[in-house]
Amino acid sequence: KEDLSWVGPLTESKGGCAALQMNHYPACPDPDQAMGLAAHTDSTLFTILYQNNTSGLQVLKEGAGWVTVPPIPGALVVNVGDLLHILSNGLYPSVLHRAMVNRTKERLSLAYLYGPQPSVQISPLPKLVGPSQPPLYRPVTWTEYLGTKAKHFNKALSCVKVCAPMKGLDANDHSRVRVG
Ligand SMILES: O=C(O)CCC(=O)C(=O)O
Ligand SMILES: [Fe+2]
Q1: Sign of CA dihedral 141, 22, 173, 33
Q2: b (16+ CB within 10 A) / e for 113-142
Q3: Does 178 participate in catalysis according to the annotation?
Q4: Which residue has a Cα nearest atom 9 of ligand 1?
Q5: Minimum-distance ligand to the CA of 51?
Q6: How far is 166 from 160, CA to CA, in rounded Å?
Q7: How far apart are CA 43 and CA 116, in angstroms?
Q8: In this predicted model, what pLDDT tens digit does every residue of 164-176 receive, in sequence order?
Q9: Which of 62, 21, 66 is nearest to 39 (CA)?
Q10: C-alpha torsion angle, residues 130, 161, 172, 25 (rounded to 10)
Q11: Which one of 41, 44, 47, 60 would you pick to mutate in the ligand 1 pocket, going by the greatest count of ligand atoms within 8 A of its CB?
Q12: Which of the pair, 7 or 39, is modelled with greater confidence?
């Protein structure tokens, strides 16, 4: 219950907010010259993705580069979104992913995008912050975060960051990731 206090009083809670997005990627004779969906992180708490039996989804894995997530019959893909990244204070990083097109086959995917009520403040959970682990992100509502994302795209997480990492690169800072 304490872990869910950010939602507000549960008795009054109207639950979260969700949207379904249907993606269609027609076959492309020159797939190296086209991109189905450019590299991005989802601005959700999490996304549940169904893909038909044509592969195309890729996630960026540190040290390995772009890795294909093959469709498995009966399986769904769960993506951690930016708001869960913030809520977990970076413990569950949102994953940079993209969709490639296929030379001969069309591809379909169905994304269930789940987030909080648009006006609920999202900030790192109190139990995940302390003297040795300060909150890395300031409170934001989904509405505010979507505005930041529209303006700054893959740098949006950095925009709501409260303190810069002391040294070296921040592995979770997607703005530093080279795409392509
Ligand atoms: O088509 C896919 O596999 C990815 C779709 C996606 O990333 C999205 O809808 O946000
Ligand atoms: Fe996505």
Answers
A1: negative
A2: bbbbeeebebbbbeeeeeeeeebbbeebbb
A3: no
A4: 111
A5: 1
A6: 17
A7: 11
A8: 555 555 555 555 4
A9: 66
A10: 130
A11: 47
A12: 39
Average pLDDT score over residue span 9-15: 67
pLDDT in tens, 73-129: 999 999 999 999 999 999 999 999 999 999 999 999 999 999 999 999 999 999 999
Let me know: does 101 contact 36? Beta carbons within 8 Å: yes
The per-residue pLDDT for 154 is: 95
CA distance 83 to 139: 10
Element (H, E) at 98: strand 97-99
Handedness of CA 142, 148, 151, 154 (dihedral sign): negative
Q: What is the ipTM of this complex?
A: 0.99
At 33, give phi and psi (nearest 5°): -100, 5
